[in-house]
Amino acid sequence: MAEDKSLNLLDPFTAIDLGIADWADGIKDWASANRDTIQPAKRAINDIIVGIDDIFQAIPPVVMILIIALLAWQLAGRRVGVIVVVALVALGLLDPRAWSLAMTTLAIVLSSVFVCMVIGLPLGILTAKSERLQTLLRPVLDTMQTIPAFVYLVPVVMLVGIGNVSGIIVTVIFALPPLIRLTALGIQQVDGNVVEAARAFGASPRQIMLKVELPLALPTIMAGVNQTIMLALSMVVIASMIAVKGLGNEVLRAMGRLDAGMAIVGGLGIVILAVVLDRISQGVAQTGRERGHRHWWEAGPVGVVLRAMRGPKAATQIAARSSAQAGKLQDITGPDKNEKGVNT
C-alpha cells in the first residue's frame, strides 16, 4: 500500500508526482504496439546498409587501400595519402579479422554521416536564415548533445528493434547537432559586403547561396562534418549493445570476457579509422588559397592523369601563361631596381 505523504513546504518534492515515468512507459507501449508498421522501412534501410557492407567486404584489402589512398591524395594532398596508406596497413596488421570488422564499422559510420548531412545541412541553412527557427532548435540541439545515449536507446529499440537501423538512428541523434550548428555559423559569418556585391550584380538568392555563401562557409561546414564523423565513431561501442556489428562489437565482447588484448585491438582499429576519416575530411575543407588557387581536378591523381594526357604541349602553354601573368604584374608594379639602374 502506497504511503500517503502530506505536503511539506520545506520539502515539497517528495509529495508531488507528475507521472512523467508513467507517461514515458506509455510511449514505450505505443512503440511496441506500432513496431510492425515500421518494419518495411527498417528492412529497406537495413538492406542498403548490408549492401554497402557487402561491397566493402568484396573489394580486396589492397585494392581498398589503394582506392582510399587515391581519394585522400585527391582531396587532401599527397602527404595525407601516404598517412592513409600507413594507417590502413597498420589496421590490417592488428588482427586477421580486424580489416573485415573495420569495413563493417566504416559502412555503418558512412551511412550515419550521410543521413546526418541530408538532415543537418538543410536545417543548418534554414537556421542561419531564420532567427525564429534558431530559437526553436537551440534547446532541441542542446538536449541532443547532453542527454546520455542510453536514455534514448531504449525507446529506439522498442520502436525499431535491434540491428543496424537502430544503431544508425542512435548515432544520428548523437552526432547531428554539431553539423547543424556549424553550418548555420559558417553561413552567418559570411561577409555581408560580399553578399551585397553579388546581389548588386543581379545574382538570385539561389545563386548567392550556392556560389557565394556555401563556398565561403565550406571550411566551417566541413569542421561540422568532421565533428559528426568523430562523434559517429565514438558511438560504435554503444551501438554494439543493440547488435550492431563491427569493431565496437568486438570491444564490447572483450569487455564481457575481460579480454584486454581484443579490447585494445578493437580500440586501436577505431582510432585508426578516426585518423583516416579526420585527415580526409580536413583536406576537403582546404580553401582555394591553401590549394594554390587551383581547381580540384588540377591536383592529385586526376591532375597527374590530365597532364599526362595533354602532353608537353600543355606544359608549354602553362609556362607561357605564367610568363604572361608575370609580365602583366611587372607592368602594373613598374620596373624593378636593376632596370632603373640601367636606365639611369
From TrEMBL:
Record keywords, A-Z: Cell membrane, Membrane, Transmembrane, Transmembrane helix, Transport
Bilayer-crossing regions: 55-73, 80-99, 105-128, 149-176, 260-277
Topological category with respect to the lipid bilayer: Multi-pass membrane protein
Main localization of the protein described in the UniProt heading: membrane
Top-level taxon: Bacteria
Gene Ontology molecular function, alphabetical: amine transmembrane transporter activity; carnitine transmembrane transporter activity
Name the record gives this protein: Glycine betaine/proline transport system permease protein
Species in which this protein is naturally found: Roseovarius tolerans
Source taxonomy: Bacteria, Pseudomonadati, Pseudomonadota, Alphaproteobacteria, Rhodobacterales
